[in-house]
Amino acid sequence: MPFSRVPSTGAPEAASSPSNGGCDRWPMSQSPDVLTGKVALITGAARGIGAETAKALARRGVRLVLTDLDKEPLDEVVAAIGADDAVGVIADVCDLESMERAVAQGVERFGGIDLVLANAGIASYGSVLAVDPATFRRVVDVNINGVFHTVRAALPSVIDRKGYVLVVSSLAAFAPAPGMAAYDASKAGAEHFASALRLEVKHLGVDVGSAHMSWIDTPLVQDAKRDMSAFRELIASLPGPLKKTTDVESCVEAFVRGMEQRSRRVYVPKWVGQVQRLRTLLTTPLGESSTLKQAPRILPKMDEEVARLGRSTSARNVAAGNAESD
C-alpha cells in the first residue's frame, strides 16, 4: 500500500547540522510543512539511504523523481510510495544526457525540481598498489562526475524554483582511511564541489549543503564487511566513535531535516561535526599515529583478500555497474 502523508512530527535534531549558516528559508506556504508539495530528485534511490529518504520525504508530502541503474528494486520503491507521487527512471549518473532525460521526465510529470539529493556513490577496495585501476576510475566517475551531472541536469529548474541541493559527501572527505583512496579522494571532491556551487548559486536563491556521515549500515558498508575481514578489522581499529556504525534511519532523519532547513552541513552522527572542526589535525603525525600503527598489518591483508576476490568493489557493482546508495 502506498504511504499516507503525515505532518511533520518535530523529531529531535541530534543527528543533523545545528545551524543553517545563514541559509534562506523556504518560501511561505499555506501548508504547515514547508516540504509539502515540493519535488525532489534523488539518485541512487533503489536501496539504502536513497530509498529510505525517498519514503520519508513522501510521508512529508514530497513528490519524487528517483533514479538508479537497478530497475527491480527501484520499481519496488516507487510502488511503495505510490505511482501518483513518484516516478522511477533508469539513469546513469556518469552520463549527463541520461540525467538530463531523467530530469526532463520529472519536470514533465511534476512541473519542476525543488530539491536535489545527489546520493549515488560507490567504493573500491585495496591499496593504491593493488586496486584495479578501472574500478578506481569508476569510483571517481560516479562520486564526482556523477554529482556534477546530477546537479547540472537539475539546476535550471532548481534555480527557477529557488530550491536546495544536498550533495552526499562523507566523513572520509576529511578523515581518510588506508585502502580507500578512491573513495576518500572522491568524497573530498564532492564536498568541495558543493562548496563551490554554493558560491555560484546563492545569489540566485539556491542553497547548497554537503552531508558527512560516518559508517552507515547501508548495502555499501554491508558488502565491504561481508567481502573482507580486513575491512572489519580496519573499522574495529579506529579510535573512539569512529569505529561505530550508525543505522540508516538516523541518517535519513538528518537528511530530511537538512533539506527542510536548507542546511550548509549535515553530520551523521552529530559528532562528525566535531571531527570536521578538527580536520587540520587529522593529517598531522599525531592525528595519523593510530592508523599508521594498524596499516602495516591490515593493508596487506586487505590486498590479499582483494586478490582472492578477483575484484576491487562489491559483486553488485561488478555485475550491474551499479551506482548504489552510500
Automatic annotation (TrEMBL):
Keyword match Acetylation: no
Annotated CDD domains: SDR_c (cd05233)
Matching Pfam families: adh_short
Example GO molecular function: oxidoreductase activity
Residue numbers spanned by region Disordered: 1-29
Keyword Oxidoreductase appears in the UniProt entry: yes
Signal peptide range: none
Residues annotated as domain Ketoreductase: 38-218
Cellular-component GO terms for this entry: membrane
Keywords, alphabetical: Oxidoreductase
Similarity comment: Belongs to the short-chain dehydrogenases/reductases (SDR) family.
UniProt xrefs under NCBIfam families: PRK05872.1
Protein name: Oxidoreductase, short-chain dehydrogenase/reductase family
